[in-house]
Batch of 4 targets.
Target 1
Amino acid sequence: MKTEEVTPIKIKKADSSKIEKVDFDHLTFGSVFTDHMFVCDYVNGSWGTPEIIPYQPLVLDPSARVFHYAQAVFEGMKAYRDDKDGIWLFRPDENFNRINKSSVRMAMPEFPEDYFFEGLKTLLKLDEKWIRKGEGNSLYIRPFVIATEPSVMASPSGQYKFVIICSPAQSYYGGEVRVKIADHYSRSASGGIGAAKAAANYGAQFYPTNLANKEGYQQVIWTDSNTHEYLEEAGTMNVFFRIGDKLLTAPTSDRILDGVTRKSVIAVAEANGITVEVRPVKVEEIVAAAKSGTLKEIFGSGTAAVINPVAGFGYKEDKFELPKSSDSYASMIKKAIIDIQYNRAEDPFGWRYEVR
Ligand SMILES: *Cc1c(COP(=O)(O)O)cnc(C)c1O
């Protein structure tokens, strides 16, 4: 990016690589990690020397504040290898800006842009072999920040650790997804931390998601915490509804995560002549459209799966199935985004970022 000086990164290489032991054809998402990790500590009001070290456990004091007060934020991004061995990131500035926005909301310090990009590129080059060619293969990148100061005093930590770990991933298919529209629990609240990619948001949604799982749903569509009348997100994804030939999605707010994939879906849809209405979407409207047959699709958007179509949904006592269609917006838009990510198509939006 706009670095004038070269960021000094201390590198300690792993003695040997684990890659030979990895079965790349049977990966469980997020369970295998590459040989190295990026770490940088914040003490006395500033970030220290960034380092790349062999992937290893973190040693933290049991009183480290992250364990007690959930000062923890993260990001999810991916690196792709094209057929000519080029390595690409997708809109990484968005992730960089967002992790700092999330940090600010959690009273945590922002991370410098040159440390982030130099650290990430150096790490990806060191672990380059882990980024595999071929349809659906990618390297999932997980930057995160945690509060490390040893003290259970209920105030913001004075020490933090910024870490990046990477995990090889295959294309994600979770089977048919049926979702339950939330009418009691909420993922986030007005004035809360829903717009931050904060670890605590995930902890808070596991319990209601487990309840929905018991009723036969894979995910919950979250509604606004004030009235439960408006549809906001699907699980950990943003959510789109197709009524007739139009796409609807909720505007971002302090309850909704401003997804990179969401923005990209809106741009690709509009570039393909699809009308996208970004406005509050009422549960009532979607139920009525399902009953009258004008509701054609529901899909979630997020980095892990890009787009995840929804097969059906439940609201209170009612269950609805969505029509199966081979010319869905979901599959057209997903293909357009993936082709840009893998450098198989023109990138009119300037979204690709080459790792050299
Ligand atoms: C990460 C996330 C998304 C998707 O964001 P992308 O930038 O598209 O990956 C959507 N909703 C929530 C709650 C999230 O945490």
Target 2
Amino acid sequence: MTHIALSDEVHATQVLGACPHDCPDTCSMLTTVQNGVAVKVQGNPAHPHTDGALCTKVSRYTERTYHPERILQPLKRVGPKGAGQFEPVSWDAALTDIAARLQAIAARDPQAILPYSYAGTMGLVQGESIAARFFNKLGASQLARTICAAAGGEGLVQTLGGKVGMRVEFFAEAKLILIWGSNSIASNLHFWRYANAAKRAGAKLICIDPRKSETADKCHEHIALLPGTDGALALALMHELIQNDWLDHDYLTRYTLGWEALRARALTWSPERAAAVCGITPEQIRVLARDYGAGAAASSGASTNASAQAPGGSPAAIRMNYGLQRVHGGGNAVRLIASLPALIGAWRHRAGGVLLSSSGTFPVQKAALQRPDLLAARTPRTVNMVTIGNDLLRQSSADFGPAIEAMIVYNSNPVAVAPESAKVVQGFARDDLFTVVLEHFQTDTADYADYILPATTQLEHWDVHSSYGHTDALLNRPAIAPLGGAKPNTQIFRELAARLGFAEPCFQDSDEALCRQAFGDAVDFEVLLAQGFATLQTPEAPFAQGQFPTPSGKCEFFSERLAKQGLDGLPDHVPNHEAAHTSGDYPLAMISPPARNFLNSTFVNVKSLRDIEGEPLLEIHPQDAAARGIASGDTVRVFNGRGSHSCHARVSERARPGVVNGLGIWWRKLGLDGTNVNQLTSQKLTDLGHGPTFYDCLVEVQRV
Ligand SMILES: Nc1nc2c(c(=O)[nH]1)N[C@H]1C(S)=C(S)[C@@H](COP(=O)(O)OP(=O)(O)OC[C@H]3O[C@@H](n4cnc5c(=O)[nH]c(N)nc54)[C@H](O)[C@@H]3O)O[C@H]1N2
Ligand SMILES: Nc1nc2c(c(=O)[nH]1)N[C@H]1C(S)=C(S)[C@@H](COP(=O)(O)OP(=O)(O)OC[C@H]3O[C@@H](n4cnc5c(=O)[nH]c(N)nc54)[C@H](O)[C@@H]3O)O[C@H]1N2
Ligand SMILES: [Mo]
């Protein structure tokens, strides 16, 4: 904490914090506090990845924190479920009643209680620490937290051995960057800085994305493939690398597993075959392969002594993001793309390789934070958060276990973000479901709560953060006292634990103590206290000489672990559940990627940001619009067998023919007809990891 004298009268303090949001950038934040009021948040100039700049939305964090609609006292439902009618109650009355209700259910079967949380805050303390201890001690159902990254994460684990990859700062030295399934300018702005530096130094940037995004605008080339066809594209790239011998044979021999089998499969994927699947031209694939293979082969080739730094080399780097794995074959697609750098030996350079997530680099002491030992001998069932729509509607059965009777929601807004909203809403509307929502605002989910409990924001509590886009740990100190009656998630679960008679001392751990437990001795807490961040010591080119954290230590093209599960050990192109052009009724593929000024459904209620986004829109290509008599600004109905969602059309070449883009994730109640895009998405799962398939969704569009 530093004290700065603004004038003789006003004394301001600057408090070091961390942006809590679900974004790869995990910025270091500086909050200026005057007389106990946070007046400004800004990026910490001393943190290299943040470089003194926050994104537009988080710059408005004080507007969000002091929002007149912040929930600052416990609320109890007085109207019908979903009507959003509540009256204030005391903390004591709320917690006593909640504890009694949970105790009564737990006495029959604690698995009828389900926690539902995701990454409203990415903090390790306000996320799964005391909360996890509480649900473990209770013996509640476990939640599979799959809604974002499960398929891609599993793809990385099976191929590279973990959620690991290039260090983000070295993208600045790459000569070729493939930005694959990522709108970096919108969702990974601080990576874009490095990509832009590379571009200024002469690197070529290629964007692979069905949508002509803001990022595609700024790249040299844009390959607008159909959603869910990335695996086919990667296989055809391999085909070309093989045919032209743009391969690092030495790297393949020493550091990979299953090359012969992968080679044989790739040779069945000619550019012509893949182009027909991807909805692009064979020539686009050939040019991409030449850029990727020929440039890199020129520098590393089959040489055995290429150094990790490779001065003068032409390292090729791939920035994948999670956009490409929200389809049936997302896991396999990530496996194939993560395999590419090994073919050309790109890993030999620190500026070569691939990055999807760096989160596996962090030494998070999960067991210390979450205390699975509190389960004792019990092994509760696991419920997948993606299928909450179906699961809330399931009866007790031998197969499923007890019907869900209570949900405790924190750090998440499932009514807006989970797929197939009609079912999610029907489930949350059940009169026999007891729902508690810990929130800052009366979200779509909070509308269905029996109790809403006011939670603190990042300015009001302690936390520590890992990152999935860089390799620095961060600390967040509270800048201001909790507003009104708000309490940190941790404190709410401590008080519930006390009322349920949970006597273990771990329920008394303070937030600061939890911050210290999160990384154990692996991160120097004094450094975190002093500068707000601590850089992990990791190799510059982690896989220059193999050493992948897989069972074999090699890049596993073939995964024995998958084969043992009865799956294909070798990655392949897995077509969408709802492949475009196959269904007469719903001929358009809809994707619903993030809007730049929202963070999932967070910030949608911040007026200044909503004003920038305008209103829920569907981007549709001029051809598809003309065929339906649709003009920009028309109200359209987007529909399929799961539901219907109305919004305004934007006729735009940002959409490719055959694909419409419904940028998300709006609050349902702020939409035209009380729905959002998830009214249309399905609960079908991915090939690996049991993840969601938000972008594997066929629709039809009609002018209203
Ligand atoms: N401003 C902002 N930033 C965010 C978020 C947000 O909502 N708003 N969300 C955060 C979250 S939760 C996450 S998980 C991260 C990463 O979140 P991601 O969703 O990966 O975010 P993007 O980087 O925008 O990548 C999505 C891109 O993938 C494209 N895409 C869709 N389908 C396909 C496909 O089949 N193939 C390919 N190649 N591309 C496809 C979309 O058009 C879009 O441009 O971003 C985080 N950052
Ligand atoms: N159609 C479609 N659906 C999608 C996606 C998509 O691209 N398209 N993206 C998916 C992805 S990648 C993700 S990650 C999920 C995101 O889904 P969620 O993780 O549910 O994310 P948010 O919608 O941002 O909701 C987080 C909520 O947590 C609250 N919150 C924040 N901090 C705290 C805190 O400290 N305490 C408490 N109690 N609450 C807090 C916020 O106010 C907010 O309402 O959505 C998924 N849904
Ligand atoms: Mo996400």
Target 3
Amino acid sequence: MIRPTVARIDLDALKSNYRLIVDALAEDAAVRTPGVIAVVKANAYGHGAAQVALALEDAGADLLACADIEEGAALRAAGVRADILVFGALSVSDLDGLFDCRLTPTISTPGAAHAVQAAAEKYKQRIRYHLKIDTGMNRLGFRFDNLRRTLPELLASPNLDLEAIYTHFATADEPESPLFNEQRLRFETAQSEISDLSRGAGGDRRENNRSAVSADSAVSSLSSPYVHAANSAALLRDSRVWYDRVRPGLLLYGIVPPPLASTLPLTPIMTLGSRIVAVKGVRADEGVGYGVRFTAEQPATIAIVPAGYADGLDLRLAGRGSVLIRGRRAPIVGSVCMDMLMADVTGLDVSPGDEVVIIGSQGADRIDVREMAAQIGTIPYEILCRIGSRIERVYETAT
Ligand SMILES: *Cc1c(COP(=O)(O)O)cnc(C)c1O
């Protein structure tokens, strides 16, 4: 049993996008080729975390990132074996999942540092973590200008091993904003400060731990932490912020963050389609839908499509967006309802059962997520993440 409205996810296109990014990094890296952290948070931007993560792993991804411990546990339950980094704050989370599911936490607040240290002690384990530095986003992370005060205690935590240092850009997708460059410089200063600080703290701690823990974990704490900062926009924009790894999300799904452009031949991996379930003739001067916001000037034909705001289609699409029917653009009219929308198909020869493309191509035309986002004043991320759980995801792969 399957509803007419379906999201098709092309896993081959996903793998190809991943490899295009990897190849571009190898080609353009100044010194060493950075690795990738494949971002699959929020159910892989609505595409389905389990299937997307396994396909990325198949394409060679060795480190995935998610938003919280619960998402990480779901990835493990799906059989993901690659390392998994958790981005979110952990101070009020149930931390058992970090150990049960072998997840790598981000420590971005003193509260998280205490909580993870206490949990690791309880489990009698050492745990590797990524340290987040706030260089200007003013969200999570230790402030870049206060590290000598805030970090020594964390760096001396006996059960915590610093694996990587990272930051996040607030304006990577705003080419005019000077903050991007400022954040880069602050982050580079922070890196050298942390390396000074950890030489002090790490030295002491390693001595203490030599006797208590296995040789293996003592060795892992000796290697110096690696560095990452770039989301999709930063990756496209400035190879100076590639460092040791980059963290693309949106690009993997085949979408370039607006307003940026890219020469990478990425493919959007999701198409959203449906079928006409009814066709209605409307006389001149009659209105359509809640609030009768659309009034036909001439006799009109309206197609009813079984997808609405409960499926994540925004109300603001009415009067602004279109769907593709018989290779033509049919404007969305009236109102987007909970379970349905109406499209003006006047002049087209349509019947119930005809294919409707909401996102994707039909004939020579295509409606992409960037266009849809621009029509309603949002970002592609929001459109993708909101595609509802009622819509079945069908995974396609040739291999
Ligand atoms: C979501 C996220 C990313 C990926 O962002 P895109 O713009 O989708 O590439 C990278 N880093 C962090 C910390 C994130 O939260």
Target 4
Amino acid sequence: MNYLSTRGDPSRNDPPRGFSDILLEGLAPDGGLYLPESYPQIDGATLTRWRGLNYADLAYEILSLYITDIPAEDLRALVRKTYTPAIFGTAEITPLKPLDRAASAASGTDVFLQALSNGPTLAFKDMAMQLLGNLFEYELARRGEVLNILGATSGDTGSAAEYAMRGKQGVKVFMLSPNGRMSPFQQAQMFSLQDANIHNIAVDGVFDDCQDIVKAVSNDLEFKRQHRIGTVNSINWARLLAQVVYYFAGYLQATTSNRQQVSFAVPSGNFGNICAGHVARMMGLPIRRLVLATNENNVLDEFFRTGTYRVRGSAETHETSSPSMDISKASNFERFVFDLLGRDAARTKQLFKTEVEQHGSFTVSADEFAHIASFGFISGTSTHADRLATIRDTHRRFGVVIDTHTADGLKVAREYLDPGVPMLVLETALPAKFAETIVEAIGVQPDRPAAMRGIEDLPKRYVVMPVDTQAVKVYLSHHV
Ligand SMILES: *Cc1c(COP(=O)(O)O)cnc(C)c1O
């Protein structure tokens, strides 16, 4: 399997790139995002055979269609090491929890939560990041190279990256976070890591300052090359691919026959999670709808309702109680648009490079807009009041406490139920991570997994730095 760029020029005859070539890269050199040349098609016989597999072996089957440059036995060992009950809490890895049952629900529809958040950092990003850690270690050893990951975080991504890379050979992590601005729980999660290859840098500024420093360091190409600096951001194809697996796992748990369809509702920010659902559907998984849920930062809902994609300025980006969805532009969205436009890379480039960069927005044509329905997408928005009401209602009726992001997904899911088609709402975090809003909704503290109790009291390992790119560079050059 080879990969192409969403902005690639087919007439340039670039050398083909395999999975291992793009694994350690971010954007393609032309500024586009990588996608496979085609989506492998899964027929009924294959899907039936997969019904008997455990999660790791299902992951192997799917990944091996896209990763043809790692020997089969090595790939199988990597996924088996990643998707274990010891790391993800249950034998199913992403078990379904029933909420409404069709027999009693007014809609005649089963509604399930699909639990994606039982990994080490209690958010779905572990599903992909844990695999990425093992893939990076494997590929770097194979090449005899090392990599220093530089990132900025306000919470979920940074901790998922640190827990995935801790103790890994050939990899170091340098994670910038705004000093004193993360929740005590999030800070304790990251700063309590004692592994020598994990460096927490608390910057005396806000998240944007951290991100600006990362950009400034990355723009110094000579420094970046010399110190082997890389990233693990959400546009990485390997992360997206790892997420495709749980759409299959959810489908196989919710159905007994391949003639049945299901829908998925996905709390969305950068469009990484739901883009994996799009890939699963393109492979032939019988998905009726992909329900995209946003919070008050409704860039994507606006697109799916109107055909206009308009990125927001920082002043227009709301700080909400589902903070991992607080985005001003959706960094993976270009992948879907490329498919929507019949994989026309020139037109994709025109929209995302010329129009977004010059005018901050683009609008697809009426024909292109009409085509969206055939991809199964539909969308909605949820507000703080909706989150509180949904958390309260779910607790009262089912005795289940859900987190704020999952609440956004469930709220919008209920607007698009089809009788007889199970709705799987992706649970993207555990409520323990967002305790303040849970207390606001139901008046009690959410449960914390045993391993996370009292982590605020553990010794912390971090350095504090001013908002100063040069100081960060000096630190990097002493510690890489
Ligand atoms: C990252 C994140 C999201 C958004 O996922 P995208 O892939 O960016 O769309 C939603 N919920 C939680 C808890 C997250 O951490």
